[in-house]
Amino acid sequence: MTECEQSRVGREFLDSVSWPTLLRRPAHDQCYCHQCYSSDLPDTLTVAGYTYVIPRGWSRFAVSVDEDFFNHHNVWKTWLNCYHGTSIDNARSCVEHRQLLLPNDITMYGKKLEIREDHIPGEQYVFTTPSIKYAALGCYGHTYDFRSPRDSKLYTIKVVLQCKQKPDSIIAQPETVGAREREIKICPHFPNEVLEWKTKHRSSVMIYGLLLQVKGEDAEDDSNLSLCQSISITENQPHESIIIPPQSAPSNENVDNNPKSPPSNQAIDNNSKPTRSIASTYRSKWASMSRKRAALLIILVVSTFLPIAALIIGQIYKNDCPMQPWIPRWLIIFGAMGLAGFGLIFITMSITFQRCSKDTEVGNDISSYMFCLLILFFLAWLIAGSVWIFPANLEVQFNETNKKTYCHKTLYKFAFGLSLVQYSLIGVLICCCLGNVF
Ligand SMILES: [Zn+2]
Ligand SMILES: [Zn+2]
After folding, report:
1. What is the pLDDT of residues 398-438, one digit of tens each?
2. Which residue intervals are annotated with compositional bias (Polar residues) in the record (predicted)?
3. Which of 94, 123, 225, 381 is deepest in the core (most CB within 10 A)?
4. What residue spans of 64-161 are helical by DSSP H?
C-alpha cells in the first residue's frame, strides 16, 4: 500500500525537525486523513468507558511507550484518550522526558519550565483535553509552514500530542478561550463545560503518539484562531471543576459505560473548589437551559403583550382621567417605548445571529447597550408613574365623571396593575441574579 500525501509530508516534517527516531514506533502509526480513514467510519469510539474522539484529518506518528508500565497500570484498557496541543519543540521535549512536565519542573537539560503566559498564573497543572478540536486551537497546537523537499509544495502543519490519562487524576473544567460567552460550541462531542482537563499527578499522562495535521496551501483554515485572542479576558474567572468518574469495570472495552455512571469516591481532589460528577454537570446544564428558555419566553410575552395593551388602553381612555391626566399619557409612552425598544433589540439580535460568529461581539455590544438604556428608562418611568398612580389611590372614584377625582376604572386599575407587575419583575430579576451568584 502506498503512503498517503499527509503521512509522507508529516514524515518529511519530522525529519526536518530531527524528531528522535529511536523513540518512534512506525508499526503503530495510523493515519486518519480523508484517504486513509473514510467518512463512513465512526467519529468516536468508547474506550475505557469514555468517549474517544477519533482525530479525523490527522496522522499519528506513534511514540514508543514503556510496555511494562502500560501493562502494570493496564493503561490501554483503563486510561482515557486525550490530547495536548503544543509546539513541536515542547512535543519533542515531552517525548524525550516520556511525560508531560509540570510548570516549575526542571528538565533533564537543567531548564526550569515557566508557566506559559496564556495559562492561569498559580495553576501548576498539566493541561489536556478530550477534544482534538480544542487541542488544535491556535493557542495550544502550534502551526508551522513547511515546504516539502520532494515537490517544493508549501504545507501548514499543526502539532498535537495524543496521550492516555489516568481517569481519577483528571479534573475537568470549562474551556478557557471564552467560547461560552460567545456561544460557540468548540467540539461536537463534548460540551464546552468539560473541555479542559488538568492534573497535578505526575506520570498520570502518557504520550503514545504525535499527531500532525497537514494541509496544502490552498486548504481553508478551520482552526478558528479568533477564539484564542480572548484568553486574557477569561483567565481570571473561577473554574467549575469536575472529576472524571474512574472506571469501575475495566475488563470489557466494549461495554458502553456512559458518563452517567455514578462518580466514585475514589476520586482524589487536588482542588479546594467544589467538584461535581460529569453526569450532574450535564443534568444541571439541561436544567439551566430549559429554565433560561422559560424565562426568555415569559420576558418575550410580557414585553410584547404589556406594551400593546398599555398603548391601547391609554389611547382609548386618554381623556377619561381628569384626576391625573398623566396616567393615560404614562401608559401610552410606556407602550410606545416598550414596543420600539424591544423591536429594536429583536432586530439587532436577529442580525447578529445571521452574521458569522466572529461578528457577534459587535451586535452583542449594541444590543446590550440598548438594553441597559431601556432598563434605565423604564426604571425612571416606573418611578414617575408611581408618583402619579399610587397617591391617587386614596381619593380616586370611578362613578362621578364630572368630578375632579374621577378616573376611568379600567384605565386606573390597569395602570395600577402594570406598575405592580413591573415591581414584581424587578423582584424576580434580583432573585435570579442572586441565584446565579450563589
Ligand atoms: Zn492518510
Ligand atoms: Zn499546555
Report:
1. 888 888 888 888 899 999 999 998 898 888 888 877 766 55
2. 249-276
3. 94
4. 67-72, 75-78, 88-97, 132-135
